[in-house]
Amino acid sequence: MAWAPLLLAVLAHSSGSLVQAALTQPLSVSVSLGQTVRITCSGFNVNSSIGWYQQKAAGDPPVTVIYWNDKRPSGIPSRFSASKSGTTSTLTVTGVQDEDEAFYYCGGHSSSSSNTPTVTQVYFFGSGTQGTVLSQPKDPPTIHLFPPSPDELSTQSKATLVCLIGDFYPGAVQVTWMADGRTLSSGVETSRPQRQTNNQYMASSYLTLSASDWKSHETYACKVTHETGTIKKVLTRSECP
């Protein structure tokens, strides 16, 4: 089982104080039922008070599982615990259950209040980690990279490169586009992974450029990071139709 990446954008919209910080979390972690899993978060100020938040599906309100570094709210199972050392916080789930499958975010909040902080009091979040309770062996993604069509280039003066990613498990990937070895950030759109009939996952990513930008680079690459490793597919413009 796996959940696609979920964003806390709804929270950022509801509170102007929420800021996405440069906190480092792993893209995904996976574990078999009943085992122990640990998720790390690093990069915050040593004096920050860190909490952990669980979100199971898009639109669901995030649930606080840890606050003030190592405190567990009432109603949260004792299998959830956390520790903080310097600028790294570690969430530990012991004896993982099916219902623990979710996205987990670390976040910084004020420790001045005597009450348990609410999610809207968090002033920065990490990027999030997808937690998967494994139901089958891990599989790396397959990648197919397609160039823009000659018709699109000639009639629309733009170029769309397509990267199709399939047959991966667990269902979390990070896609990076590169041109002549340099990372591109604009013109990129990546879909949320979808479950295939074989219980593996697929996703697609698109890079859209102007026709002149397309012609200004020779090599393009779609780099996919998955729990099983990183795979890169390269396309050479001069070899395209």
TrEMBL record:
The keyword Phosphoprotein does not apply. Residues 5-120, 141-236 form the Ig-like domain. InterPro entries: Ig-like_dom (IPR007110), Ig-like_dom_sf (IPR036179), Ig-like_fold (IPR013783), Ig/MHC_CS (IPR003006), Ig_C1-set (IPR003597), Ig_sub (IPR003599), Ig_V-set (IPR013106), IgV_Light_Chain (IPR050150). Residues 1-21 form the signal peptide. SUPFAM superfamilies: Immunoglobulin. Keywords: Disulfide bond, Signal. Pfam families: C1-set (PF07654), V-set (PF07686). The keyword Disulfide bond applies. CDD domains: IgC1_L. This is Ig-like domain-containing protein.
